[in-house]
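Entry 0007
Protein: AI-2E family transporter
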Amino acid sequence: IQGIIAGIGYFIFGVPNALLLTILTIFVGIIPLIGPWLVWVPIDIYLFASGHSGAGFGLLIYGLVVISWLDTIIRPLIVSRKSQINPAIVIIGMIGGLFVFGILGLLAGPLILAYVLLVIELYRKKTFNKNIIFKEIK
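Output (structure tokens):
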């Protein structure tokens, strides 16, 4: 999705070889957080350097607002819907995982955090149920 949205921006702002760059953005979009940046930031630098400052500024705003927004907001929402995990847990897990494990942590972080929360929840239910059973027996 991100690569296609970026490609629309490339066409809107008249980037040369927009189709090829869109395909490249689709492929690097697999890398969370930094993928599309690897393509659209150099394109933006090229636009400014070649004297197309209007298109460069437009793509800069489009990239920061639209393309980046998709990665930081939409991706965790999609992951949370597919995995039935709260989106806040996914975002916190992705950020924490990135700091602790690097790029691999973007995937592992939410999973580890979800498992930890599940274990805590199961422990609380087990402890709570034991207290109820012991109170009823006495």
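Curator remark: The chain has a mean pLDDT of 80. Residues 85-138 form one domain.
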